[in-house]
Design goal:
single chain; alpha+beta; DNA polymerase, domain 1; hpI Integrase, Chain A; five-stranded mixed beta sheet; three-stranded antiparallel beta sheet; elongated
Length: 390
């Protein structure tokens, strides 16, 4: 009789005693049957082909395998396998890890940016860790309650809430395969935040306050070309075209290439910088050989210069990009060209700079300008200043 015939005549598991699964030494598991039951042993050999019987302690020694554990529960049923709580906790971690791995693979297969992958993976990991029940059994109300707790107790921002919802939606659509569960999940209402913009004088001061040629060249490129911090650190030497006065930005936001301005001043600084530092592949190399400068390093440079010039904390590395767009608009550059230089997909994104530009606002005169208001001096002690309004 072959193995297939033997398996087919095994008695049903609901007629067999329960089994107990406990943690053993060196990460192995112990399976304790109710006596040396020959039919249970036959079933165990199907799930754990390498299991060994320990005669003195009277248990089966098996390797800790999350897939085999699932097969064991599927074969005997959840009510006929008594699992050590420590193993149950491990099994939950394994399932969560497997779910996260599959979610991560989907993000990478769909070519999401590394930064987006990191944000979405963190949001999904925190979401999964907050529930004790099986993820396939979650309800829409439980997910809404989780998000409500983030909003009310942890006071997350609207953008963070939106990112969390996007990540959870993708998890249920791609991995758990229950997209309908989140169809009615509300998105946060978007507010409008105006970008921080420096005046031309403040921009000039911050570019002159940099301590060395490398950092000055870096910040001038960011302002003169409207580059994001992640774009400037990934510039390659071959991306700079002096003849055409253009910089090629590779794989910008949304994995899009574009061209932007390569100003005369930036060209002069880059030539001096290349003579002194002799960069190879990356224009701005980092501390590790063959790696580009980190985004964090650029942000620290901006913090140091900000303190040196006395500018407020609202000035960041991205403020240089905002100032580039706003100053172009104030100089009369068409909004469509600014959109192309910035790499915006929608003109609505670029239109935000019309709200901070002084090109049109500067022509408007405040109504107070036509009034004759005399400046009052200091009120001296003993003078009668509390006159009633007439």
């Amino acid at each position: 009789m072959n193995k297939r015939q033997t398996a087919s005549i095994l008695p049903p598991v609901n007629s067999l005693p329960k089994i107990t699964l406990r943690i053993g030494e060196s990460g192995s598991w112990r399976i304790y049957p109710a006596g040396y039951h020959q039919d249970i042993i036959a079933h165990l050999h199907q799930v754990f082909p390498g299991c060994r019987w320990q005669r003195e302690e009277k248990y089966w020694k098996v390797s800790s395998d999350p897939e085999a554990l699932k097969a064991l529960i599927d074969k005997f049923g959840p009510d006929r396998v008594v699992i050590d709580p420590a193993i149950a906790a491990l099994e939950k971690v394994w399932r969560r890890t497997a779910l996260l791995d599959r979610f991560s693979q989907e993000l990478h297969l769909r070519r999401y940016s590394p930064k987006t992958c990191k944000v979405y993976q963190g949001a999904v990991r925190r979401f999964l860790e907050s529930f004790k029940k099986d993820y396939s059994q979650l309800t829409t109300e439980e997910i809404r309650t989780y998000l409500l707790r983030l909003v009310e107790r942890e006071e997350i921002s609207a953008s963070f809430q939106n990112q969390t919802i996007s990540a959870i939606k993708l998890l249920f659509e791609w991995v758990i395969k229950r997209p309908q569960l989140l169809d009615d999940l509300p998105r946060p209402r978007r507010g409008r935040r105006l970008p921080a913009v420096m005046s031309r004088n403040a921009t000039e001061n911050i570019l002159n306050a940099v301590g060395n040629l490398k950092h000055q060249t870096l910040l001038v490129l960011m302002y003169s070309a409207g580059l994001r911090v992640g774009e400037v650190v990934r510039l390659q030497v071959d991306d700079l075209d002096e003849g055409r006065g253009l910089i090629r930005v590779r794989s910008g936001k949304g994995d899009k290439d574009r061209y932007t301005l390569y100003s005369t001043l930036a060209q002069q600084l880059v030539r001096a910088y290349r003579r002194e530092y002799q960069p190879q592949k990356w224009l701005f190399s980092g501390a590790q050989p063959g790696r580009h400068l980190t985004e964090r390093s650029v942000q620290q440079v901006v913090v140091q210069v900000r303190k040196k010039t006395g500018l407020g904390a609202q000035v960041t590395s991205h403020t240089l990009r905002h100032s580039f767009a706003t100053h172009l608009l104030e100089n009369g550059t068409d909004l469509r060209y600014i959109q192309e230089l910035l790499g915006h997909s929608s003109p609505k994104t670029t239109q935000i700079y019309t709200h901070v530009s002084r090109r049109d606002l500067g022509r408007i005169q405040s109504p107070v300008e036509g009034l004759s208001v005399r400046q009052k001096g200091e009120v001296r002690e003993g003078s009668s200043s509390n006159q009633p309004c007439k």
